[in-house]
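Q: Here's a chain of 363 amino acids. Please give me its 3D structure as tokens.
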Amino acid sequence: MDYFDVVVDLMRDERKPTDFEGHALEIIEFIDNERDTIRSAYKKAMGSKFRVKTFEQEIKKVRSAFSRSPSVFRKNLLRKIVTDESPDVELVLKGQYKEAFELLEDAEACQLTPMLIGPPGTGKTMLARSFASSHNKDFEWLTMDESTKPVHLMGSYDPAETLKRGFVIDAFVPGPLTKMMVQGGYFLANELNRATEFTQNSFLEPLEERTLNIPRLGRIKASDEFFMIAAANPSDMAGTHRISEALKDRIKIWITLDYPSRSVEMEIIKKNVPETNLSQDFLSMIYDVIDTTRKSREVERPASIRSAIAMAKLAGRKESRDSLELKDLKKIATKVLSGGIKPKPGIDAEALVKKIVDTSLRG
């Protein structure tokens, strides 16, 4: 198919987009890649009637018509399905992270279930994802809260398929826990102690017997490669539930994580913003801001590693455009911390952020 002729004819209303529904995605890509060439072809076809403004309007109209196509959405959706579970933030395996990583390897080798415990922002999820990625394993996780039910872990039957075919295996849509047990991947039960005891107890059988009973289908046995990691916030944090004694008995290794040391965290920041050339002085200032939130008695949830990386990215972009000064870093820190920390009840958030920034970044 000659896409030049097709696009030009569409722009001149000599053909209809519906005639090329099956080629919608290819036509969109052709328009994006060959815009200048299409313009030349359209100009030749229009002759003296060619106008730049008309060209821009017509090509936008054609692209929009195909962008709304259901087939384009389906193809784009398939392209966007995540197959690489590598963490969005890379950790540096030094200090506590190196020790925790080694303990996870020991736990897997011995088929023992580990628990990562630490406040939000200490890298629990990143560590679990890094561990799975380094071992080239399938990885699923579920972040839990009070609304999480056992069905969210196990899976459920598709109502339409069940009505047509009954409770058959083809009507069953597996949850993340079931998928990893069958496929032999890693499953992270994230923020386990935010789930109710009723939901927590869904893990008793998989951890004790390495089996899971699926209603109407029967009991499945986990692959030998299946490995579960649990993660939880400190028990004194708001919104947490007591971990049941039965579940505690089945979690064999307890790994405590805290915020990383200055040297490790600054190395993590640099590793995750390779496109910037921030000086060591500015990186140190960013760490000082983050560290102040963690030491403040007025902060309930301090800034995470991700907040530090966000500041570094914004500062690096500012520096690449013109120059970066202390006042610029203060503005960046204020914007990031406005949603990056949670004050304790009764503390004014705006005033607290200003106090932290002014204390950390003194001119």
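Q: Can you summarize the key feature?
A: The chain has three domains: 3-80, 96-256, 262-360.
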